[in-house]
Amino acid sequence: MKLKLAKWWETQSNRKILCTLCPRYCTIGEGQKGFCFIRENIEGKLYSTGYGRPTGFAVDPIEKKPLSHFLPGSEILSFGTAGCNLGCKFCQNWTMSKSKIDEVNSLHASPEEVVNLAKKNGVPSIAYTYNDPTIFGEYVIDISKLAREENIKSVMVTAGYIDKEARKDVYKFIDAANVDLKAFTETFYHKLTFSHLNEVLDTLVWLKNETDVWIEITTLLIPGENDTPEEIKQLTNWIVENLGPNVPLHFTAFHPTFKMRGHSHTPPKTLDMARKIALKEGINYCYTGNVHDIDGQTTYCPNCKEPLIIRDWHSVLNNKIVEGKCHSCGEEIAGVF
Ligand code: SF4
After folding, report:
1. CB 36 within 8 A of CB 49
2. pTM attached to this predicted model
3. Per the omega criterion (within 30 degrees of 0), is the bond before 267 cis?
4. What is the pLDDT of residues 121-143, one digit of tens each?
5. What is the pLDDT of residue 106?
6. Residue 60 DSSP SS3
7. What is the average pLDDT value for the chain, to the nearest integer?
8. pLDDT of residue 216
């Protein structure tokens, strides 16, 4: 496949390029790559070298993304590429996200081939995931456009660190997104992710107010870094006030890895504490993740409290939602069912 000319860049002096895809706004000299490794200045033009180069495909339960209110119990074709535009010291996928394209076993797959693979596997959706799909936005657009023509849905699993103009293009054919809200302090974002909180909050508000994309949020709780009751209360209050009570929130457990191997695993009781705070503060749907916790992973009717979708880890054990409503009291359940 021919190298793909990138979108979202401007020429500067000395054949340098300003990449305007994400708020990092890298200035990239000729022959160099941006922070994310997969956008390269070749002879004064920016190329998307991750285009058509997935690191592999998997068919996952959609609950693994995690999405609990978007086609629950279905499977989703999932892939990512090398590279990432964040620098999370706790990255749970760092072998991919911190690889340059030639260091990982990247495949070649055209957008048509990706959509055909989804059809062949009989799955109703495709996930752009594992690393942050923002950085291969051109590939996302071409696949999601084709997928929509085939009635296959597209899901972004992202940190939401994307430029205001570029996001209008990248999300044009996207149906759902799980956005990480990694913490609720700028100190955490700055120190542990090399990005900024406000840009992520801005993306969440934009997705909610200006698009039809179904959104869910994930917060990985890291002991001693973002797990105080006060911070969890602030985070959940912000969600209720700015996005409403019906955006599902997932608190997931951290495993020591990459540059944070000295930290301990998240105790299940921390996840439980966070979930209880979120529910008390008005979030209607809150889940725990990366642990076995049937209560914390079950969808309850916010009106009559009936258990509706009973889950264990990524498995749906029972689904009693009927035409998007609680089977018991008829309350509408937010989501795409
Ligand atoms: S997308 Fe990559 S190259 Fe572009 S600004 Fe962000 S990190 Fe830099």
Report:
1. no
2. 0.97
3. no
4. 999 999 999 999 999 999 999 99
5. 85
6. strand
7. 96
8. 98
Q: Whose CA is nearest to atom 3 of ligand 1?
A: 34
Residue of 246, 256, 262, 176 whose CA lies nearest to 220: 256
Q: Cβ(290)–Cβ(64) under 8 Å?
A: no
Structure tokens at 130: 């594992």
Strands (E) across the chain are located at 4-5, 9-11, 17-19, 27-28, 39-42, 45-48, 57-61, 75-79, 125-128, 153-158, 176-180, 214-221, 249-253, 286-289, 299-300, 307-312, 315-319, 321-322, 325-326
CA of 50 to the centre of ligand 1 (A): 12
Which tokens is 44 given? 């004064």
Query: Ligand 1 centroid vs 251 CA: distance in angstroms?
Result: 28
| Confidence (pLDDT) at 80 | 96
Q: Sign of dihedral through CA atoms 168, 171, 177, 182?
A: negative
Q: How many CA atoms lie within 13 A of 95 on its CB side?
A: 5
Report the residue among 4, 7, 9, 24 best suited for mutation to probe ligand 1: largest number of ligand atoms under 8 A from its CB.
Answer: 24
Residues 6+ apart with CB under 8 A from 203: 160, 161, 162, 167, 179
Pocket of ligand 1 (CB under 6 A): 19, 21-22, 24-26, 34-36, 39, 85, 135
Q: What is the C-alpha to C-alpha distance for residues 94 and 117, in angstroms, rounded to an integer? A: 26
Per-residue DSSP letter, 92: T
Tell me how far apart the alpha carbons of residues 25 and 20 are, in angstroms, rounded to a whole number. Answer: 5
Q: List the chain residues with pLDDT less than 50.
A: none
User: Rounded distance, CA 133 to CA 174, Å?
Assistant: 12
Provide the pLDDT for residue 102.
67
Residue 101: per-residue pLDDT:
66
Indicate the DSSP class of residue 191. I
- Residue found under tokens 């209607």: 284
Q: Tell me the sheet residues that pair with 307.
A: 300
What would you report as the CA-atom Rg of the chain, rounded to the nearest whole angstrom? 20
Q: Whose CA is closest to atom 5 on ligand 1?
A: 25
User: CA of 270: how far to CAs of 26, 91, 221, 274, in Å?
Assistant: 37, 20, 8, 6
